[in-house]
Amino acid sequence: MGASTSTEQVSTEQREAESLAASTGALTLLQNTFSNLSDPQTHTIPISSLQECFKLSIDYQSCESPLKLEKFPEVLNHLGGSIVDHFFLAEKGGLNWIAFLNGYTKCCGRMPTSSSLNNLLTVFQIATVKSGITTGLQIESIDADNKINGYLLPADLLMLLWMCVVISYNSGCIKSFKGYGKFGLPDINSLVLSAVSSCAEGGAELNMWNDDILGFDIQLPIGKLHTWVLKTVPNLPDCLVQFVHSRLCNAASQEQAKLEPSSSSTSDSNSMAQSNNYLLTPGRAWSISLTMRSTMRDEILKACFAPDVDEVIDNLLYRSSLHGKGLNRFWSNVEGYNGPILVIISATFEDHTWTIGALSHQGFENKDTFYGTSGSLYAISPVFHHFTSSGKEKNFVYSHLHSPGYEAKPKPAGIAFGGSIGNERVFIDEDFSRLTVRHHAYDKTYQPGPLFPNQGYLPTEAHVLNVEVWGLGGEKVKEVQNSLQKREQLFTEQRRKVDLKTFSNWEDSPEKMLMDMVSNPGAVQREKR
Predict the structure, then answer these.
(1) For residue 278, which of 81, 470, 124 has the smallest C-alpha distance?
(2) Rg, Å, the chain Cα set
(3) Which of 237, 307, 368, 423 could join 117 in a cystine, given CB atoms 3.0 to 4.6 angstroms apart?
């Protein structure tokens, strides 16, 4: 057993290891895991058992990206052993209780994001070396300070990100979904292009409309890659942490699932094809999830990992190609949803198609002024960027629907994010036909940066192709909206009804009176007394 009794002499080293593990809230979990995996005679965990605990495999036949990396399955096959080699220092007899605790704390303990990213890169390096991959991967690790030097090529980064997708799926299924389902490797080229534009020398001058860049020998220095991760996808290092923790949770409950290619990683082509018909594709959903740290992350990951497409579209509130374009159609579908909302817009300009998004942490309101407390803007495709609040202004959302009647000075009808009225950073007109995107100099609410490649200083007016709105507030928020919509629909039907029983005959009906007035408006009407 990992836990010691009151009569046993506890060493200072063991006491410190248990204290650090307890600070993560996982000490009881680790005690159960150690008890299930350890040899009763030696009181140590065999290395083979721990490697089996983190074992992964995948069927590489399904991949959305045009760039296919043949040795990627080998990297996954060596991932479990690489995790054990880096975190868990075992002796000849196996892994004792103290070494097991220290290994968990080294991976899942409290530490800066940069240190957690170093752990991820080191595990990836060990796995690639074991797979025989050396081209473009030159990372030097210094054990004393856990520093990483060197660079990655775009293809290497794609392989690293795919590894994170797979381990996110395997840890996410345990917490969120029933069974493991089926999935393929999503298209996350926009994330790689984002790193290239930010980290490579002269990256901003490259043609980001060209996917062939992924195969170029462009060096991405590790130092700049650190900065890009912290700014753009800060949750990326958590993928490894959550995977290790979830696998140990399985071992603690003696329900560890062995992930076989035939059951866990083979893609359902029909399900994936249907998911990719939406603007929020699995790859885009996973990329956006790396920017979130709340329950919104679990909700958006359904669009990436849920095996059933019906479960994915439960969060879809509005889609212009399905519900019709225009602010009125939009409003009838999002009204009453008081939770986080993600808006995704696909537009075309000068033979280029690009996709942007906006996240509001509250529901939409019909106002002629900006409102909101927090939010984010996203450049989604072809290059992914994340722009959080700058803290200077609070013009997060503008959503105004003209009210019936005369308005002396009507405000523009449409939806906007950032900027000011008349100079919005992102503005969709009320017909959902035109999208106007302005330079970030007009906007003090969101951080600066381009929303699509080669965005200039002048406003860009693009043609809107499609608009999607996804609710990320969970089931309870959706249930409240459904209840409000049903009640409003009931009131509308009651107002439309005319009770003809109140009229005794045709002569007394309002229809007869109206027809008489139209046919002979000058006729004298007899006053009833």
Answers:
(1) 470
(2) 29
(3) 237
pLDDT of residue 388: 94
| Summary count for the chain: helices (H), strands (E) | 19, 13
Type of residue found at 353: T
| pLDDT tens for each residue of 321-348 | 999 999 999 999 999 999 999 999 999 9
The full set of domain ranges for the chain reads 12-267, 315-473, 478-519
Secondary-structure percent of the chain, ordered helix, strand, coil, rounded to 5: 45, 15, 40
Q: Which of 132, 129, 125 is nearest to 148 (CA)?
A: 125
List residues bridging with 195 in a β-sheet: none
**Closest to 343 in 3D by CA, of 332, 356, 331:** 356
Which residues, other chains included, contact 280 with Cβ-Cβ below 8 Å and sequence gap of 6+?
300, 303, 342, 344, 468, 470
SS3 call for 253: coil
Question: How far is Cα 230 from Cα 118, in angstroms, rounded to an integer?
Answer: 12
pLDDT in tens, 308-318: 666 678 889 99
Residue 337 near residue 477, CB atoms below 8 Å: yes
**How many Cα neighbours within 13 Å face the side chain of 194?**
29
Q: What is the rounded distance in angstroms from the CA atom of residue 158 to the CA atom of residue 286?
A: 14
| CA gap 283, 381 in Å, rounded | 11
Among left, alpha and beta (phi > 0; psi -120 to 50; other), residue 421 is beta
Q: What is the pLDDT of residues 400-447, one digit of tens each?
A: 987 766 666 778 899 999 999 999 999 999 999 999 999 999 999 999
pLDDT tens digits for range 216-259: 888 899 889 999 999 999 999 999 999 999 899 888 776 444 43
Task: Calculate mean pLDDT across residues 368-390.
Answer: 94
Please state, as a whole number, how many other Cβ atoms lie within 10 Å of the Cβ of residue 260.
13
Rounded to an integer, what distance in angstroms lies between the CA atom of residue 326 and that of residue 342? 17
What element of type H or E holds 222? helix 222-232
Instruction: Give dist(CA 162, CA 156) in Å, integer.
Output: 10
Angle subtended by helix axes 222-232 and 113-130, to nearest 10: 120
Read off the pTM: 0.84
